[in-house]
Amino acid sequence: MTSAIHTESLVKKFRRVDALQGLSLSVPQGAVYALVGPNGAGKTTAIKILMNIIRATAGRAEVLGIDSSRIRGHHFQPIGYVSENQQLPEWMTVGALLSYLRPFYPAWDAKLEDELIKQFDLPRDRKLRHLSRGMRMKAALASSLAYHPKLIVLDEPFTGLDPLVRDELIQGLLDRAEESTIFVSSHDLAEIETFASHIAYLEQGKLRFAEELTALANRFREVELTFDAPPNLPQKLPDNWLQLNTAAAIVRFTDCRFDLERSTADVRAVFGEPRNVTFSPMSLRSIFLAMAKSARNSD
What we know:
Layout: E1 3-14, E2 17-28, E3 32-36, H1 43-50, E4 58-63, E5 66-67, E6 79-83, H2 94-101, H3 110-119, H4 133-145, E7 151-155, H5 163-174, E8 181-186, H6 189-193, E9 198-203, E10 206-212, H7 213-219, E11 221-226, E12 241-247, E13 250-255, H8 260-271, E14 276-280, H9 284-298
Parallel strand pairs: 3-8, 3-9, 6-7, 7-8
Antiparallel strand pairs: 1-2, 1-4, 4-5, 9-10, 11-13, 11-14, 12-13
Helix pairs in contact: 3-4, 4-5
């Protein structure tokens, strides 16, 4: 499948800070791809390199088949870009902003513009500085969707927004999902879990994993074993068991390569026959916490 975004061994250093450490990922065309991780993980740095706002120290990146270091001017015509720190001309009205941008995009769709204005309940005649942060984000998103971009890049678009505004922004994105690839960075895992098709986890500039969200959810389970008496723990455990802990006659851990038949066999091989075994699906937040803690313990 052709990639809308592709990076190879991307490195960015700011003096003594390694913001990105060999980031390699591919974003399939048509995906809703989430780049997630804690604040300071390198998400914004990666997006700024993709948008040619800053240059990489090493490695390379392509956006819609173009080297990111060459992106400028007309190359942005098929790209919609919205950042949480995006500076809008606050002295302009919403209508004036859209009128100003319209000539730069040959594919600008006046009918879609009107639909977005209605969908986001945006007042054309109100100045941007008089709008709430959520309404300004809606205006920025509307101005980036009105020309049917092939790629929509969003950097932390949901930060600090109330739930209703977040839902409206997400719905606006999903309405465009059939015609665009969406690449969104966020640390809001609960929101991402509701609409992303692919996910990549970045921590301290390192890519911990990248895969389809359904595959990720299917391979993780929280395991709880109950015994009649506290069990003896062997020194060597399967390497797919993460964060094992015990409390009296209960053992809990995360299985990161879950398969019912194999996972059951692993439990029997290590512990014999527990009184009770449960395999519980995990939320995205729980998966990430298990991965993050495991990665920190192994570094």
